[in-house]
Amino acid sequence: MTPHQCRILVDSNTYFRLARSIHPLLHVEFGNKRYCLYVIKELQEEYNRSIRLKNAFSWVNDPEYAENRSHVLEVTKEEKFEIKRAYDFILDYARNVHPGVSGVDALCLAYAEQLHIPVATDDDEMRTVAGAYGITTYTTLELLKLMLDCRHIGIEKVREIAAYWAYLHDEPKDFVEDYKKLFGEGPPKRSPRRH
Fold first, then answer.
1. CB-count burial class (<10 Å; 0-12, 13-18, 19+) for 104
2. What are 46-73's pLDDT values in tens digits?
3. Between 20 and 30 A from 11 (CA), which of 70, 71, 146, 191?
4. Is the bond leading into 24 cis (omega within 30 degrees of zero)?
5. How many domains does the chain have?
């Protein structure tokens, strides 16, 4: 019997950190458990509304990335209704306790909670809210380790991605410690950016 696909929902910060370096990032199965990454369609709306994101990640609307993002999570009408209900609760909770969690973040968590799938995110507040709702999370580095363990990528790709983040000054929180713990070596050194 073929095992079901193990879906992982990727939030916007993880998507922007990985999609250019691992392409196609979404809708590609890897490992014996058939892991497969997805985004929610609202990621595009979040990007379209943000001048900061458009300036930082101008490649996002290039045809090959747009096409890859068209593979969004499929949900039934009933699931959609339950996701909407969960979203209202999660957003209300987040606004009171963790106001940095955006509407799109709350929606991403609502999908994960209702579909019983993990979320990959480096957003601390989002991870805390996820914990309150029993949602499993991966950091982007943990997701890279999973891909490495499943032989979806090699250690050279991990180093290349880490070096790129360092070059952009876009390393996740606790980057050096987490990188050493997960990969058994220090991350690539940050090189000065040329302007």
1. middle
2. 999 999 999 999 999 999 999 999 988 8
3. 191
4. yes
5. 1
